[in-house]
Here is the input.
Amino acid sequence: MTPPETITSLQNARIKAIRALAERGERAAAGRFVAEGVANFDSARRAGWTPVSVVHQADGLDPSEAELLTWASSAGADLLPATPAVLVKLTGRTNPPRLLGVFPRRSEPLPAKAEVRPDALWLALEGVRDPGNLGTIVRTADAFGVAGVILVGACVDPTAPVAVQAAMGSLFQVRLTVATDAGFADWLTAWQGAVVGTHLAAAHDIRQLKPSGPVLLLMGSEGAGLSQQLMARCTILTRIPQRAEVDSLNLAIATGIALYALRAARL
Ligand code: SAM
Here is the structure.
């Protein structure tokens, strides 16, 4: 079989289509997103995801990159060799990764009762807007063994380039659900466990939490915090102690602290 020709131009139709995936609407329409570099490919492979296509530097791959390329090809991915200049333009980086994969987007359904283990910690984020925060949270949730992350309402796209980059491969490992406000509220009625909401003004100190049974941790949005509707559904509202002079903690930092508080004893 003749090897595919090296792509040298950004005007190549396949490259143009991949470049367009930087836009949320295009990702939604195509049902695909881009993840770059060895860490993402490794993680995708471990989690059973396969790329649809891979743009890769035509020469000079190191052995681990070449091995990942062989895996992707044998899993059915189209290989698109390109010049370094095309990879620079495609990624917008002066020192781009030599592998870039186009992956199918997935969203898992809200978990059924039988899927919620008695000791599980689930995380729901209401209206998260910042892709860097979301990616960092997905990475942290993966590190602390969270069973799944649920995005509630108008949230940033977890497959946005900045989110994918910040998640550092964890996007492939963590069970992610995108839910509407109404769908989540409905599902919550059948939740059998604690619902722990976080709020700056709560009287309860998170260090006193003694979670037992399944726990659902709720985090509010960067701007407005948790909505009144979701606060009303919490079995407890808790606060991470901080100096009053500081407005609040960054959402990703607060999530990391809350997850640690709920999970530390098991790590
Ligand atoms: N203006 C918002 C408010 O008053 O709720 C601040 C939102 S804060 C940037 C984003 C989210 O991080 C909050 O909804 C909450 O879930 C969490 N958070 C931040 N600081 C916190 C703290 N000290 N204690 C508990 N949760 C906190």
The CA atoms of residues 27 and 116 lie 30 Å apart. Residues 131-143 form the longest helix (13 residues).
